């Protein structure tokens, strides 16, 4: 968003409205930009104050011929300018005569605005990905897993065609940054973790031979084609990454026809693992790549659906049927875990469906608080991170940091208060019913009835992963890293 004259040049804004006319009272109040960098307070008497990180100044304003005129006096000189405006609900859109646009929100409605925007963006993104899935992708079953047998090719923000050439997308699929890769797979599929890639590698004979056995029979330079023993059809789509050029490092395309790079979901704040194949080796190798690099995406089917035979990705309607059968719905908002027949309430918040209770499935790497089964019944079990990653039932998964952020953004200000159950400072406005299950650190239990902590699937570094915390003393829902060996609660999200 370009800075407006009211901040940088002390110029004047004016705007055109379709619903307010010349009613100047509609402008009175406190306004702020989404990023908080600029704010203004307009008073009914035609005066006001404009604030930014660089400037604070008093102004006068008025509505003239359906245009909003703002005037500032600096060092004895007055600056005025008129521009168009639009007020819709609690949003004020400003367009000056140079065409620069800014959006202000009533200050008291900023969190609600952000949540609305995030939910709309998520809905649009899901719609676009669903449309991509309906194109139909070949699939192949290898061992216990079902994989797409071609690289994903969905035109979405955060992706490019190699050399910005659509023909390369048609051949190799698109290249994605890691954040986009994490959510781009269609419903019923996901970006494989490092462990899931390793399961595939072992199923075809180990990393010493996997490169040759998974590579396509054509498409690789220097006659370095593979045998494609399993129909995986790996192609060398190259990448978009920092490359050395004249003593500088710049982002550029490289290695198409020679190298294939595929993202895994496993990473930390800056890096994520990619599995790599190249023309000089039959052996696969792992790299940790910057998340802003762009690489190929292969989606793997969620475990709930992995028994399906090889063929094509089902349409959305077929996926829905498949998921309904697998999840064993008990009633509206209830599911049953087929592993131990425990039932869990669920809740839909925005476009996400969450369990409305902490998971209580007994597994190695989990305990009841103070080893008391009554605490498991009330608060669910506590899990270390390695166990938590794969403990959710079929059709469900451990939520990523992005999943948690979407939930927290929807809840808005005081998200913790709104998500917590009644009885420990919560209002439970969304039916999420967060409970304070406490934790176990180095063998010591603490925090039950006062603190709730939940794992995310996002790794911070080799020793830590991200988790979210709510406590009874304030209304926030906060993100921190935690040692993976600690035992805390798990909430599952539907695939």
Strand order in the largest sheet: 1-2-3-4-5-6-7-8
CATH class of the largest domain: Alpha Beta
Overall SS class: alpha+beta
**Main sheet overview:** 8 strands, antiparallel, barrel
The total count of helices amounts to: 11
Uncertain residue ranges: 1-22, 306-310, 314-332
CATH architecture of the largest domain: Roll
The amount of beta strand, in percent, is: 25-35%
Look up the CATH topology of the largest domain. Answer: Mannose-Binding Protein A, Chain A
| Spatial gap, N to C terminus | 35 Å
What's the domain count? 3
Count every beta strand, where a strand is a DSSP E run of 2 or more residues: 32
SSE inventory with pairings:
Elements: H1 5-8, E1 29-33, E2 38-42, E3 47-52, E4 56-64, E5 67-74, E6 77-88, E7 91-95, E8 101-106, H2 110-133, E9 139-142, E10 145-148, E11 159-160, H3 166-172, E12 175-176, H4 178-184, E13 189-190, H5 194-203, H6 207-214, E14 239-245, E15 248-254, E16 259-267, E17 271-278, E18 285-290, E19 300-301, H7 316-327, E20 329-331, E21 334-336, E22 343-349, E23 352-355, E24 366-367, H8 373-379, E25 382-383, H9 385-388, E26 396-397, H10 401-411, H11 415-419, E27 439-441, E28 444-446, E29 451-459, E30 464-471, E31 478-483, E32 493-494
């Amino acid at each position: 968003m370009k800075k407006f004259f009211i901040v940088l040049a002390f110029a004047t804004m004016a705007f055109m409205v379709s619903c307010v006319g010349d009613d100047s009272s509609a402008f009175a109040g406190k306004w702020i930009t989404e990023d908080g960098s600029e704010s203004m307070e307009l008073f009914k008497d035609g005066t006001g104050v404009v604030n930014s990180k660089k400037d604070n100044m008093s102004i006068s304003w008025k509505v003239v011929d359906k245009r909003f005129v703002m005037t500032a006096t600096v060092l004895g000189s007055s600056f005025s300018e008129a521009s168009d405006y639009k007020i819709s609900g609690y949003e004020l859109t400003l367009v000056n005569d140079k065409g620069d646009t800014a959006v202000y929100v009533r200050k008291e409605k900023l969190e609600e605005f952000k949540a609305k925007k995030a939910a709309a963006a998520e809905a649009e993104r899901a719609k676009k990905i669903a449309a991509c899935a309906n194109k139909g992708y070949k699939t192949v079953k290898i061992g216990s897993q079902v994989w797409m047998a071609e690289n994903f090719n969905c035109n979405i923000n955060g992706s490019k065609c190699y050399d910005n050439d659509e023909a390369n997308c048609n051949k190799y699929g698109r290249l994605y940054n890691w954040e986009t890769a994490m959510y781009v797979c269609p419903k019923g599929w996901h970006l494989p973790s490092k462990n899931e890639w390793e399961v595939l590698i072992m199923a075809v004979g180990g990393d010493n031979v996997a490169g040759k056995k998974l590579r396509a029979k054509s498409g690789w330079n220097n006659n370095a084609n593979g045998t494609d023993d399993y129909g995986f059809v790996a192609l060398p789509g190259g990448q978009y990454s920092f490359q050395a050029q004249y003593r500088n490092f710049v982002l550029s395309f490289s290695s198409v026809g020679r190298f294939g790079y595929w993202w895994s979901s496993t990473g930390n704040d800056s890096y994520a693992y990619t599995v790599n194949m190249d023309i000089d080796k039959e052996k696969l190798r792992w790299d940790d790549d910057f998340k802003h690099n762009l690489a190929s995406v292969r989606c793997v089917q969620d475990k709930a659906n992995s028994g399906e035979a090889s063929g094509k990705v089902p349409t959305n309607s077929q996926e829905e049927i498949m998921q309904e059968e697998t999840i064993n719905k008990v009633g509206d908002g209830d599911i049953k875990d087929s592993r131990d027949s425990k039932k869990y309430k669920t809740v839909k918040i925005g476009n996400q469906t969450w369990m409305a209770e902490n998971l209580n499935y007994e597994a190695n790497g989990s305990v009841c608080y103070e080893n008391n089964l009554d605490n498991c019944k009330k608060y669910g079990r506590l899990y270390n991170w390695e166990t938590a990653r794969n403990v959710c039932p079929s059709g469900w998964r451990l939520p990523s940091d992005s999943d948690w952020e979407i939930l927290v953004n929807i809840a808005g200000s005081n998200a913790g208060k709104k998500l917590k159950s009644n009885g420990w400072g919560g209002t439970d406005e969304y039916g999420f019913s967060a409970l304070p299950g406490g934790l176990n650190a180095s063998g010591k239990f603490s925090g039950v009835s006062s603190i709730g902590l939940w794992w995310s699937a996002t790794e911070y570094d080799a020793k830590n992963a991200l988790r979210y915390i709510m406590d009874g003393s304030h209304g926030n829902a906060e993100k921190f890293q935690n040692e993976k060996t600690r035992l805390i609660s798990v909430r599952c999200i539907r695939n």
